[in-house]
Amino acid sequence: MAELTGSILAPEGWVSGRVTFDARIAGLEGEPVAAPRPPFVLPGFVDLHVHGGGGADMMAGAAAIRTAAMLHARHGTTSLLATSVTAPVEETAAFLAAVAEAAAADWPDAACVLGAHLEGPFINPDKLGAQPPHARPADPALLRKWTALAPVRVVTFAPECDPGGALRAAIQAAGARAQIGHSLCSYAEAHHAIACGCGVTHLFNAMTGLAHRANGIAGAALAHAGFAEIIPDLIHVEPGAILAARRAIPNLYGVTDATASAGMPDGSGYRLGGHVVTKRDGSVRLADGTLAGSALTMDQALRNLVAIGLPLAEAARRLSTIPARWIGALDIGTIRPGARADLVVLDDALAVREVVIAGRSLSAVAEKEG
């Protein structure tokens, strides 16, 4: 039985003590503490929107998914969704076959792949953002074929391209979460989709905005959404807008939207599906300057959220507990007996010092393999 000691973020708050575990958490002992001190033991981060990392684009197959999952694990992500870009039908099917392989694998040195996030292709072709130009009309039958290939947990779609709601219904019937994104829909259309159980993909980006006489998805999300993802790299969304969203949306959670460039040096030649992108000064862009995903990792997302004023406990839960709850994965994103032993240990600078995935320490795995 392994153990970690420090200030532990339990569901009820900080506990100064120890957590014991094998593949699952066996026990948590200690005293409640109002002012935690390092080392901080947090639930492992759960990233529901990841395109790549470590130089690998997840559309390139299972080996690429593993490379990206290894990179993000070193930054505290213990579970993730491999995320697609819009692509031809056969390429999306190949991506899902690779996700199925990755989800069934037992990689000791990589984040657990919970399944897929399909970011398109059922999006508005006039609001692609950095998505390749392969948007398709809503096709519930095709969606059902794809969900038979791999565990699809999230699908981003444009409600105005699904006026009867048949695609949304097919997504939800498959057990996945439907999210609004890459869309030009009206406030009324967005409000209806949210009322039908939809979340929101990368809030404020690639969507109709918020204006006091011309409201769109962003306004509907602030008024009505229970869950929404946001990219806290402080490039996609400025701090004040993050704080406004946090105040309005109870279950706002962070994602990286990371590309192959995450964890890599500045330069060009990184892939994002069918696009080539350039990383420079912390951002990732197409040749025309359009933001194309990010180079963010979840440990940096945590530091960014704390830097703009969130308490550490809240920031951690918005990167672990809340996204896990959104997809119904109640045995991760939390430190309690019976939960999977996914843990990240941070020092006083909020730098990662240890990562544990399903009870296995990444540092111990590296030493064994070395």
From TrEMBL:
It is an enzyme of class 3 (hydrolase). Residues 40-360 form the Amidohydrolase-related domain. It comes from the Bacteria. Belongs to the metallo-dependent hydrolases superfamily. NagA family. Keywords: Carbohydrate metabolism, Hydrolase, Metal-binding. One of its GO terms (molecular function) is N-acetylglucosamine-6-phosphate deacetylase activity. It comes from Chelativorans intermedius. Signal peptide: none annotated. Transmembrane segments: none annotated. The lineage of its organism: Bacteria, Pseudomonadati, Pseudomonadota, Alphaproteobacteria, Hyphomicrobiales. Its EC number is 3.5.1.25. This is N-acetylglucosamine-6-phosphate deacetylase. Gene3D superfamilies: Metal-dependent hydrolases (3.20.20.140), Urease, subunit C, domain 1 (2.30.40.10). InterPro entries: Amidohydro-rel, GlcNAc_6-P_deAcase, Metal-dep_hydrolase_composite, Metal_Hydrolase.
